[in-house]
Amino acid sequence: MGSPLVAVAEGVWVTTSRRYATTSTVLLDGQGGALVVDPAWDPDELAAIPAALAQLGVTCIGGVATHEHYDHVLWHPDLGEVPRWTTQRTVDDLTGDRARLLAPLAEFLTPDLIEIAGRLSPLAGGAIPWSGPAARIITHDAHAPGHLAVHLESEGVLLAGDMLSDIELPMPAADDLTLDTYLTGLERLRPAVAASSLLVPGHGSPTRDPQGRLDADLRYLDDLLSGRPSDDPRIGDPENADLHRANLARAERMR
Ligand SMILES: [Zn+2]
Asked: 0.85 cut: is pTM over it?
């Protein structure tokens, strides 16, 4: 079987799940180590990632989960018992509310894979402690509390998690009644977006035009806040219908 990993930049590989075009990202440290970010999703897809690392001749040295949602905290035994980092808030939420947060996995995963999902450690500083290129963490609460992005500043690479997608509309945290926190999160990401030439979203396609993604989200939200109809093409996707309605209601509360 061929490797599912596709190189999108030097030392940056991705594979895309059959479910919601969910992106798993592999970052190489240049010394034979690999950092695996948000591996997803079905058992065969999870198993294919360590197999692909073996083909590349690299060993998984750690993992990163961008946020607490069940499709971003998965793992596979063959990736090894290595540290899997995330924010303190994500660790706290998964500790306090594990059963509810991970309940949807029963539909997709075997019990052994559910057992190792969400076993995460808090990052101590503002960067990933690995030997690869400096990987700065940017945190915000736009899509989920304690959501992180990974910014490889020297490489111009931004791993955005569930932000800045070409297929998913801006999705505020479920209990967010306005768009304020979301807009704050986009502003937190703005400098890293401007400094990047490659953006990898948690769902959808990597792009060489990170600024275009940010501008599209800002335009969509500004249309809603101004009461204008938005011509954002993502609105036409039935998967986004409920989300778009919820965003219209959030915007309405802000006027
Ligand atoms: Zn999410």
From this structure: yes
